[in-house]
UniProtKB/TrEMBL annotation:
GO-annotated molecular function: shikimate 3-dehydrogenase (NADP+) activity
Identification of the protein by name: shikimate dehydrogenase (NADP(+))
GO biological process: amino acid biosynthetic process; aromatic amino acid family biosynthetic process
Domain Quinate/shikimate 5-dehydrogenase/glutamyl-tRNA reductase: 374-445
Keyword Oxidoreductase: yes
Length: 526
């Protein structure tokens, strides 16, 4: 009895905490009805609001008894979809049998059925006006190639509405992250319940921000990778990573702009920190091809702040109306804020994060006259991109003698001239050891997942370094760091830089002091 009361109280608490009415729907795809029933229980436990029964995934299907069983034994409301191959599904059989099965689902008590726009006339004719009052009709359209213009999307929604749909659904494909803006525009102005998704990694925003823009539901998978359409997050990530139930019209949008970007732990760090203090924001991965186009498209105050990573740190400078003097001197930006006038302000927290982590790593050394253990040290920076510039600048500021090594010598030389350093090509680095006790900082993506066996320097050369730092933090211990440790050097991981640079970004994003212990605890498992 106690358990029932407790779970009831928990449910009431969850409902009380819920700030939006957008539903989470878990697609159920399995070979058999029995397997589907197991997945339905899993969906209930995971926190989904309803399930989409993908009838086309069943290896054998006996319509009346199977639909009856699935409806009666499902612990959640049901949406029946019987997707044909011509609309991206698995069913390749007779069309009338397919539509009859959907009609049967309606008759037997399904809460929703999904009928494709291309089939709706035939379906309506077969109904003869006998539509169930309980069952809501979703009429859907899927575009696996692109996202049409706003005008074309508006016309599509009008056609779906005119077909008798209770709920409009369309899914498009993101060729660029800016495609999602047109879908948000349609969603926010829709006068009818609407499900609007943009498929693919570049469309992830459309799936997370449904509650902000008024979408009827979003889809969340039960397992990573087991998706019914490209780019679906898991139910667990929607609820626990993105705080989906707390999102609403006033939620501020933050994100990390990069390419690639899905490896970044920033959403984990910031969203948990936002939740811990009740800050109304959400932080997402933003896979961006063209940063200038991104900022032109997402120019509203809702898009409030951004971390910026490879390869956009230098191009981001040109997007900012105001740039912090240090970032200007470095020539790279890794944090961008939207001012109240809508203009962008750029700054650089990379060098603070990296240099402070390296100094802490060296603290065992005798403090030098300037107060920094870096003063007078020979400091080799691998990479001449945004992070390389930041760390070279920071090391120089602390009195180190800086050497830039890069795949293309010309890039290394350009940066060396700006910073007041020497330059090498990366090929020369393994034979470069004018002295011992040098410091090495890798700022490239060499060694990052999935290419974890790559390293920028031979193990033999590492014996000349007293400390090695790697900006890569997926994996935490890269091949470079493992071999440096084996060679007797102290190591500083990219996680330490990541946490260090995130402190200042968090404070700039929220106006609140960074929860440093929470940051360390979150990242300690990685």
């Amino acid at each position: 009895m106690e358990l029932i009361v407790d779970s009831g109280v928990k449910k009431m608490e969850d409902e009380a905490m819920r700030k939006n009415q957008t539903l989470i729907c878990a697609p159920i795809m399995a070979d058999s009805v029995d397997q589907m029933l197991i997945l339905m229980q899993k969906a209930k436990i995971s926190g989904a609001d309803l399930v989409e029964v993908r009838v086309d995934s069943l290896k054998s299907f006996n319509p009346r008894p199977d639909i009856d069983t699935l409806i009666k034994q499902c612990p959640l409301p049901t949406l029946f979809t019987y997707r044909p191959t011509w609309e991206g599904g698995q069913y390749a059989g007779d069309e009338m049998s397919r539509l009859d099965a959907l009609r049967l689902a309606m008759e037997l008590g399904a809460d929703y059925i999904d009928v494709e726009l291309k089939a709706i006339d035939k379906f309506n004719n077969a109904l003869h006006g006998n539509k169930s009052a309980k069952c809501k009709l979703i009429v859907s359209s899927h575009n696996y190639e692109s996202t049409p213009s706003a005008e074309d999307l508006g016309n599509l929604v009008a056609r779906i509405q005119a077909s008798g749909a209770d709920i409009v659904k369309f899914a498009t494909t993101a060729q660029d992250i800016t495609d999602v803006a047109r879908v948000f525009q349609i969603t926010v102005h829709s006068q009818v319940p609407i499900i609007a998704m943009v498929m693919g990694e570049k469309g992830l925003m459309s799936r997370i921000l449904c509650p902000k823009f008024g979408g009827y539901l979003t889809f969340g998978t039960l397992e990573v990778g087991k998706v019914s359409a490209p780019g679906q997050p898991t139910v667990e990530d929607l609820l626990n990573l993105y705080n989906f139930r707390q999102l609403g019209p006033d939620t501020k949008i933050f994100g990390i702009i990069g390419k690639p970007v899905s490896h970044s732990k920033s959403p984990l760090l910031y969203n948990e920190s936002f939740r811990s203090v009740g800050f109304n924001g959400v932080f997402m991965h933003l896979l961006v091809d063209d940063i200038a186009n991104f900022f032109r498209t997402y120019s509203s105050l809702d898009f409030a702040g951004f971390s910026c990573t490879i390869p956009h740190k230098e191009a981001a400078l040109d997007c900012c109306a105001e740039i912090d003097p240090t970032a200007k001197a470095i020539g790279a930006v890794n944090c961008i804020l939207r001012r109240p006038d809508g203009k962008l302000f750029g700054c650089n927290t990379d060098y603070i994060g990296a240099i402070s982590a390296i100094e802490e790593g060296l603290q065992g050394s005798q403090p030098s006259i300037s107060g920094s253990p870096l003063a007078g040290k020979l400091f080799v920076v691998i990479g001449a991109g945004g992070a390389g510039k930041a760390i070279a600048y920071g090391a120089k500021e602390k009195g180190a003698r800086v050497v830039i090594a890069n795949r293309t010598y010309e890039r290394a030389r350009e940066l060396a001239i700006v910073v007041g350093a020497d330059a090498l090509s990366l090929d020369e680095l393994s034979n470069f050891h004018p002295e011992n006790d040098m410091i090495l900082a890798n700022t490239t993506s060499i060694g990052m997942q999935p290419k974890v066996d790559d390293t920028p320097i031979s193990k033999e050369a590492l014996k000349h370094y007293s400390l090695v730092f790697d900006a890569v933090y997926t994996p935490k211990i890269t091949r470079l760091l493992r071999e440096a440790q084996e060679s007797g050097a102290k190591i500083v991981t990219g996680v330490e830089m990541f946490i260090g640079q995130a402190y200042e970004q968090y404070e700039r994003f929220t106006g609140l002091p960074a929860p440093k212990e929470l940051f360390k605890n979150i990242m300690s498992t990685y």
